[in-house]
Design a protein that fits this description.
This protein has nine helices and 14 strands. By secondary structure, it is of the alpha/beta class. Helix 3 runs parallel beside helix 4 and helix 4 runs antiparallel to helix 9. The protein starts with 6 loop residues before the first strand and ends with a helix.
Length: 327
């Protein structure tokens, strides 16, 4: 694939994530432009295009993919259609940026990787925390050996029946396993587990327990897990989406031989370092368009002047871990 001078994006599925988080950034990056959007509901596609000044809209994905002006595809649909649309875009020879989680299962991820390799197109996944300032700060602190050798990771994510950090339950595909692969665990823990892969390397072993305690939807609503990274660091995680208000919590601790780091994925941009020398806090301002730093790196790679930290292969590892935990 030749490196284009301008990345002209076409979006399949211009829903909520495209309002602020991702799509508007495509017009703010030099050498990048959003030229077309698609949604099966034609009126919603037209409305999005009008509100965001996008020149073209479609109600058929194949038409958007085959638009000669479009040379890169962003798949922003729920996970159940990621593999299908990836295969279509790859066959058209167009690079692909797909929302997270990458797919419903690790097997679907492998199929996506294989079809992109067959047609020699790059595949990227929207694990944008790999490029955000507080997460880069955590990586920098670990690299500086301020904690010494890392011993373990502990994740806690406890949310009420209608979590503040996601949409409510009404018509929410995120709690339909046939669409999402699982429930809120698949939607939210995927971000956490992917970042830990970026921070400490691949996880080699994982196991867990899951249940549906409240019976509010078909997916699991509680998960407990243990895992081991290839480098020997161990991790534990606990997720529950039906706790009472006093128990709501979202926190990550990295514990080393010299101290610990505490930070958050969804509720705060603060990083807290505690060692024998005392306590230090770092706080960061997030970009308005939260995916912009990652999209900038994807554009740079497509133009032959950089490399994205989030690929199909790295994202597939996260699906493998979730499959192991929920098997």
């Amino acid at each position: 694939m030749e490196n284009p001078t301008e990345i002209r994006w076409g979006i399949i599925g211009c829903g909520d994530v495209c309002e602020v988080k991702s799509a508007p950034a495509m017009n703010k990056i030099p050498g990048s432009r959003l030229v077309a959007v698609m949604r099966r509901d034609a009126s919603k596609a037209a409305d999005y295009a009008e509100r965001h000044q996008v020149p073209k809209w479609y109600s058929d994905a194949e038409e958007l993919i085959n638009d000669p002006e479009v040379n890169a595809i962003y798949i922003a649909t729920p996970p159940s259609s990621h593999a299908t649309y990836t295969a279509m875009a790859a066959a058209a020879g167009k690079p692909i940026y797909v929302e997270k989680p990458m797919a419903r299962t690790f097997q679907e991820c492998e199929e996506m990787i294989a079809v992109c390799e067959k047609f020699k197109v790059p595949l990227f996944v929207a694990y944008y925390r790999r490029t955000l300032p507080q997460f880069l700060k955590v990586k920098e602190l670990l690299a500086s050996q301020v904690l010494g050798d890392i011993r373990l990771i502990n994740l806690e994510l406890y949310q009420s029946i209608e979590p503040d950090i996601v949409r409510g339950l009404d018509n929410n595909w995120r709690v339909d396993p046939s669409v999402a692969g699982g429930g809120f665990f698949y939607d939210l823990a995927s971000h956490q587990l992917d970042y830990l892969d970026y921070l400490l390397g691949p996880i080699s072993q994982a196991q867990g327990f899951r249940a549906n305690q409240a019976g509010l939807y078909d997916a699991e609503d509680i998960v407990n897990a243990n895992w081991v990274f290839e480098n020997g660091v161990m991790g534990t995680g606990s997720w529950c989406f039906t706790v009472g208000a006093p128990s709501v919590k979202e926190e990550v601790r990295i514990i080393g031989e010299k101290g610990q780091l505490t930070f958050h994925f969804f509720t705060s941009s603060k990083v807290v370092l505690e060692t024998a020398d005392g306590k230090e806090e770092f706080d960061f301002t997030m970009p308005k368009h939260i995916q912009q730093p990652l999209i900038e790196q994807i554009v740079a790679e497509l133009q032959g002047r950089g490399e994205s930290p989030s690929t199909g292969k790295s994202a597939a590892r996260t699906n493998w871990v979730m499959d192991q935990i929920c098997s």
